[in-house]
Amino acid sequence: MAAPHAALILGTLADALAxxxxxxxxxxxxxxxxxxxxxxxxxxxSGRELIAxxxxxxxxxxxxxxxxxxxxxxxxxxxxxxxxxxxxxAIIPIAKLYGLDARKINQAIGMGCECSVIPTNFAAATMxxxxxxxxxxxxxxxxxIAKAVEKGIYNQRDALDDPRCYTGIVCGDExxxxxxxxxxxxxxxxxxxLTRELGTR
Length: 201
What we know:
Elements: H1 3-16, H2 29-42, H3 47-67, H4 72-78, H5 82-97, H6 102-115, H7 122-126, H8 130-151, H9 166-171
């Protein structure tokens, strides 16, 4: 079975069978572990490389997730958006195990920003089983993005630095998104998490 299809199944099962971890930002293991495992198997990587890829996935996932955590008011009104940032836990281990360089990983993160889902509270409000599939879809998309970048996709870099892109859309002033007046609300986004203590540990 091709890795993207296997990722869809494993990501869905990881959440449906409650095998995932739980952190204040969500369940990164539903994406990080299946994607790392499958990519390591696909590219014949070592156990050491597998573990390093999972650690990298957690680091990047947590930074992005913490940067865009919604205020309580926004969470109650519009939803938490956990499945929104799960895609980064899928992309990073695959990109690392595929041997993508920093420029291409930056590109993959940009594509993840473009492919992330709209934050919504609908699955939680309806208690739909579909929420389990969302993890599988993020895992599948992580593979498709990494494979596309590996083959050559350009001009999606530095998406996290542009407030008109991911952080602005997830946490910004919706009335202004997409024009020159896009704002990041201080109580909605803390972009400092993206680089906080980076390289100091």
